[in-house]
Design a protein that fits this description.
The protein is an all-alpha fold. Helix content is about 45%, strand content about 0%. It has one domain. It starts with 17 loop residues before the first helix and ends with a helix.
């Protein structure tokens, strides 16, 4: 089986415009990166983050998309959206959060970004978990 060189069979050479190329880029490449980005982003090392950022930069510089995508911004937006959705009662991740009980007669303190209890973290590896990062980032 012969390896196909993408540059020889470029969509540009087939006459696709910039917005059609952008649609193809988003459908094939960007959705692969964004699929589980909030979950695995905390476990990536700097080399892996740089590799993904290089893919996004190459797509922008070669004209496959008119936009420049920043991996950290994409990860932060995806992380925030997943956290907001997972706070809903019907979401499948909602059972992982523990609602902090408020004792009767307790003082009214400033409002937080969520009503969940913050877990005690013992190991550095556990700080990379999506649930833990969410609870501590959006306090």
């Amino acid at each position: 089986m012969q390896k196909t060189d993408f540059s020889q069979h470029s969509f540009k050479k087939q006459g696709l415009g910039i917005y059609a190329l952008d649609s193809v880029f988003k459908a094939i490449v960007l959705n692969k990166i964004l699929y589980a980005l909030p979950i695995y982003f905390g476990y990536l090392n700097e080399g892996q983050k740089h590799m993904l950022q290089r893919v996004l930069h190459t797509a922008s510089s070669r004209g496959y998309t008119p936009y420049y995508y920043d991996l950290d911004t994409l990860a932060e937006n995806a992380h925030y959206h997943l956290f907001c959705h997972s706070c809903r009662q019907a979401h499948c991740l909602n059972h992982l959060y523990t609602v902090k009980p408020r004792p009767p007669g307790a003082m009214q303190l400033r409002t937080r970004g969520h009503q969940f209890e913050l877990p005690a973290i013992k190991y550095e590896f556990n700080k990379r978990n999506f649930i833990v990062r969410s609870l501590f980032n959006y306090v």
